[in-house]
Every structure is written in structure tokens, then in C-alpha cells.
Amino acid sequence: MNWIRRLVIGQYPSAFKNFQTRITIGVLLALLFSSACRPKRPPKSTPQMGAEGQFWVRVLLARDANSCFFNTCSPFLVKQGYLKTYLYGFGKPEAGTQITISKGTITIAGKPFSSERITIEPDEPCIFNLDGYDYRGMLELIVRPDGLGFDAVNLVPLEPYLAGVVGAEMPDYWEPEALKAQAIAARTYCMYIKKRFGAGRNWDVRKTAANQVYLGVAIESPLIWQIIDETWGEVLTCPKGREKLFPAYYSSVCGGHTEDRRNVFGGGDEADCNRAETLAGVRCPYCKDVVRPKFFFWPDVYIDKKTISQRLIQSYPSLKRLGEIVNIVVAEQSDYEQFSRLTQIRIVGSNGKSDSLRAEDFRLAIDPSGKSLKSTVFQLKDLGDTWAFLQGRGCGHGAGMCQCGAQAMARKGKTAKQILSYYYPGSKIVSLY
Description:
alpha+beta, seven-stranded mixed β-sheet, six-stranded antiparallel β-sheet, 26 strands, 26% helix
């Protein structure tokens, strides 16, 4: 690069004598410098495949399925059981293959396998397609006890898993520091959920917003992989006592103040860092600067009482003991400067009995998609045959990091560390490996 340096500082002035030469050199310089700064392409082969088991993630892709369509660009092996004992090797499928189950026996490309648990392991680049979506790692099929269906689980190392999460949870054109904060929060959340709940089931996390959205290879991009590389293995811990992971919740738009996780999800123990107030609510003057007003404030919602009763009882059958639901009362709320977030709802029945639900559970029972009732920031009003949800604002449960707030902070020059310290007070970034 010395000759470029000499041209730039004028040691070869003759090279700049005519306009065409200057343009040519300018283009050349731009290409050279832009290629040096350009993010790496997503890796063709899946990294971290040799990681220890504790750093693998089991993502539930499908539950109680009786068939699926599988494809891969390479030969693949079929193994059985927890020890993954070799059973059979397949060549590269020309047009994919149907996987079916009958009486507890899984059939792949006409070959039956009677094991209760089989793993399909593609060769390099360790990418497979399931029902039209590409994923890295391996595919595990776990037969239901009744033999009538199976769960499809993606076994994938932590970092490739995150490459399929970060761009799904936050646009990859957002500020790099916001994306870094998202990557660290998502990595922390995943490892906490895996450790706390994974031991009691055949999977660690779902691929949906019930945990965090995972879209696999399709959502990867050069910038996302650069973010993954720059935060490789970084997680948040609570520094009080022994350093422990905590559930680093996050939501889209908090509406002006995040919420204490205990008011949203209940419970909590020392491992959740409640003593350190790491998941306490904080004021957020930032998200309104990123979201358009029509998305910051959502339209009033009107739902007839019969529909609400049906949806509540469908989600919580124990409410049947109340008889007909005759009233819904706000039992608790968090009051902030410009709004209140409902945290506890009391359901009153025709027989005089009542029961309580966390407001977030109430919201999702009525509107599981979250597309209409976008948050629990609203005013509840009885209109006779209809319940009205008025003056709503924000989007999501409101606990932990506000994603739009993180973007606004990054625009103002804040680093990922500063963003995370703000939304998770007292937290500390450490490396897993």
C-alpha cells in the first residue's frame, strides 16, 4: 500500500495531471479501501461444530409433526440415541426427501428407523433445509411416546444460532452498537433458558417469539456475522456474589419506561439478579425518537365480552369455576409520568368468585399474536357488550432492554456496553469462552 500512500500525499504529482487519471485512481482507492472495510461474507461452512455440548442449542422447529420435507446440499448420516451411534449413510439427495412416521417408526427416503431418537447429520457445510427453511447444524427427530408424531429439533452451536436470531430480532441496518447489545442480550437469554429449563425437556428454546425469533440461514448477513464475531461468547452476568447469568429479556418498544420483570413474568430468585435490580424498570426517553408516532401509540381496540370470555377460558380452563365472566378489574399497575402499565388483572365470575392473572398473560390470552393488543399499557373501559382498550402505547412486554431505545442510544454515540448497563443496571459483560 506504500504506492497508494505516496500518491495520496503527493510524491507523484504527475499522476494527477489529467482529470481521467485522477478519476481512475480515485475509483481504485475507493475499491481498495471499501474492500478492506467490508464485512466478511457469512461462512459457507458452519463454525463452532466442534464446541462442547454445553455450548450447543436445541431449537424446537416443529412439535407433534407426522411428516416433514428434508433436503441438504451434501451427503448425510443418520445416528440414534443420545450417544449418536451411527445407523446409516445417505448420499446427497437430488430433490430432497419426505420424512414420515408410522407406529413409532420414522422413515427417511424409504428407509425405516425404529429408534425413539434419531439425528440427521449433514456433511460440510452442515446446513439442511426443513420445510423450506435453511438451518445450520443437525436435525434431531424425537418420537412421541404414543408413536404418532415427532418433535423436530435443530441442534446448532451457540454462535451460528445467534446469527439466525440477531437479524430476526433487530434490523441488520441498525447501528452496530445496538446490534452488539442485541447479540449479547440474546446470547445471555438463550444460555439462561437452556440452563434453567432445558434439562427437563427435549429442547432448550422455541424458534418463535415465545423465546426469541430464530429464522436460520435466511436472516444471516455479512454485518450480522461481523457482530457475532465481535461479541463472540460475550454474555451478561449479575456481579453480586457469584457471577450468574440472568434472563436478559428485551422487547420492541417500552413506551417510555421499562418494567420490573417480576411484574411481567412473576417469581424470580437470586440467580435472576433481583437483589441487584438488574431487571428492574428504568426510564426510557429514547424509543420515541426511533419509532414513528403511529407505531409508538397504537389504535384503540374493541373486543366483545363473549369473545374475551371464550379466549380466557380456552387459555386458562380453571376460570370455568367462576361461571360466566361478568367483570374485569385492574388490580395492580405501575404508574409513570405519562402513562400506567397494567400488571395484575382480576377476573370476576357470576358466582361471586374471582381469580387473578398477570396483565401480560391476560393480554396474550386475548390476543396471542400481540398484533392488536401490543402491550399492557392501555386503559380498560366497559362499554356494555364490549371491552375497550384505549390509549395504548409501546409494543411488547416492556421488561429488560428496549430495542428501539437501544437504537436511539447507539445513534447518540453510546456503546453496546453503555446500552446494556443502562437497561440492565449492575450487569457485567463476561466471556463464556
